[in-house]
Amino acid sequence: EVQLVESGGGLVQPGGSLRLSCATSGLTVRFNTIKWVRQAPGRGLEWVSSIYVGGFTSYADSVKGRFTVSRDISKNTVYLELTSLKTEDTAMYYCRTLDDKYGGQGTQVTVSS
Hints:
By secondary structure, the protein is an all-beta fold. 0% of the residues lie in helices and 50% in strands. The strands form 2 sheets. The protein has a 6-stranded mixed beta sheet with strand order 2-10-9-4-5-6, with no helix packed on it. Strands 1-3-8-7 form a 4-stranded antiparallel beta sheet, with no helix packed on it. The N and C termini lie far apart (40 Å).
């Protein structure tokens, strides 16, 4: 059974940082592209970042230069480092497989003073 479990969200002030984790089981992150998406209140899903099979990464323009996606193959875990957070980054963050077949329950990030 494939499972993805997000963690690491929380309340942070503007300009702050968080590190989100996506712990996986039943698949190997080395051989699967994992993406992060987010959903702000009252809005649709927004793609944030992806880390591909070869280790390449890509980012939405809205987070480029502030967020960093990485993976630890030994832990089968994908991370999303969030820095210079803005209030508009407030959302539920989800990790998913590229085809959206598998995904977690999400972790809430709230950026507020």
